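Hi R.,

Here's the chain you asked about this morning:
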Amino acid sequence: MMIKSMSLTPGMPSSSSPLSSQPPLSTVSPPATSLPLRTIPGSYGWPLLGPISDRLDYFWFQGPGTFFKKRIEKHKSTVFRTNLPPTWPLFLGVNPNVIAVLDCKSFSHLFDMEIVEKKNILIGDFMPSAKFTGDLRTCAYLDTSEPQHAKIKNFVIDILKRSSTVWLTELKSNLDILFDTVETDISEKGSASYLFPLQKSLFNFLTTAIIGADPTTDPNIADSGYSMLDRWLALQILPTIKIGVLQPLEEIFLHSFAYPFALVSGDYNKLYNFVEKQGNEVVQRGVNEFGLTKEEAIHNLLFTLGFNAFGGFSVFLPTLIGTIASDKTGIQEKLRKEVKEKVGSPGLSFESVKNLELVQSFVHETLRLNPPVPLQYGRARKDFQLSSHDSVYNIKKGELLCGYQPQVMKDSKVFEDPESFKADRFMGEKGSELLSYLYWSNGPQTGSPSESNKQCAGKDIVTLTACLIVAYIFQRYESISGSSSSITAIEKAK
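And the predicted structure, written out as tokens:
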């Protein structure tokens, strides 16, 4: 599937394939009616002890990837019961019990809004204090059945459509600044650590494109806005993620309690006031056209900017750049060749990247192996039967399902040689069919975000932007060397 089939806005390619048109998972496994009914293996262990044991495995002794892989091997099943942190002692109101769904077929149930709900489970049964979002539940924490969900989701979709008028120019402008900085650092220091310059460029680009506000109008926001978002985001998700700090310090200080909003309230209030003043036009559109209060519009704009866009790109782009910079297989030469042959004059545009099939496939493969959001959740709306490739399981209303995407995306019944990075995996007719099983956006790549689902509103613009960045790199350079955090060498384009 090529970007030209996406539908964000006139002049922007867009995805027209409805969810119902994706190939059925029965094409890679037997139909559910022919599968045996099996009791879900695994257990939650003794109260308190079971969750603590699983938490230590998850964060300390095994790490998330090995945690899930070992349990698949133990239970001989991609569906099983386990516990996921955060847990006791200071998360008494959080239930760590989940049913893991770790193959493409069972994982796909998480996107069926008739059988699962998404209320307050963005990062599991644990929900950060609503104080982080102005004592409001933003769209990400709303279920599709809640009236405000449709209003806010349509508001966000509208913002992204309108942003197309400045998206490309702001992206290119900030990429120029970023790579000018990289080149200066390499010249002076021999290498460039680009994570913070990247985040600063992302913040300026996304704030202008999404909020319609120029960060340079407020020196404090221009200099520190990105770090304000970093701190605000980190305090919400710290109890759920592995950082890699020396143990047991990580368990004691990062995973044992929820950090209070008070630690970042000053930062958040500055960002709120900035959006209220400088993004007034977008805020008023939310009020007048979508029936939101001013507070709802601003807090959801900040969540879209900080959690979804800035947070997502901050995770994904270093991986994308690092995959290019660390390549030893010759993929750089192939990407550069395609960009130079097909972009041409007048240069980068939404239209000029439509036919970059290898670039698109490269981006999709990076998303397959490195999804920005590794965990997805869904709570059973009713009793139903869940199917994996080889069995059927009874799910009870209220049970929490959890999928770990880095494991799901290595489903050998769907992806050939799933552990390997294959830049051309999603090319051609067969590759296009595989997009139906690429779930990084809380739904299949062939799906369309709408008020009736929880798929990322920016799904199409994320992949489009990533393709533009890859094309930009190979217009500017013959090659780059480095990792996901630094660039050590560059060769300018000839």
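Confidence is low (pLDDT under 50) at residues 1-29.

Let me know if you need anything else.
M.
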